[in-house]
Specification:
about 25% strand; Molybdenum cofactor biosynthesis protein MoaD; SAMP1_3; Beta-grasp_dom_sf; Sulfur_Carrier/Prot_Modifier; 2 helices; alpha+beta; globular
Length: about 90
């Protein structure tokens, strides 16, 4: 399954400045593995040391927040869009 992954500005140093890249995988976990294979170091910015999504990183498959879907097991059908969005906080 080929998906498009939107990369936030802060992580584009891993993708050579590309804002959107292709990745392979039937689930979000597989897509992140594919990203890591092509852009080493990027997975550690999305997942914590225990392999869970970092608290301040939101990931969407199409328009669905994966935290309210199946997390890393969220299916990524062929042609899906995966968006990695760092949370913004402030006051």
């Amino acid at each position: 399954m080929s998906v498009n992954v939107r990369i936030p500005t802060i992580l584009r140093t891993y993708t050579g400045g590309e804002a959107e890249v292709k990745a392979e995988g039937a689930t979000l976990a597989e897509v992140l593995d594919s990203l890591e294979a092509n852009y080493p170091g990027i997975r550690a910015r999305v997942l914590d040391e225990e392999g869970r999504l970092r608290r301040f990183v939101n990931v969407y498959v199409n328009d669905d927040d994966v935290r309210f879907a199946d997390g890393l097991n969220t299916p990524t059908p062929d042609g899906s869009s995966v968006s990695v969005i760092p949370a913004v906080a402030g006051g």
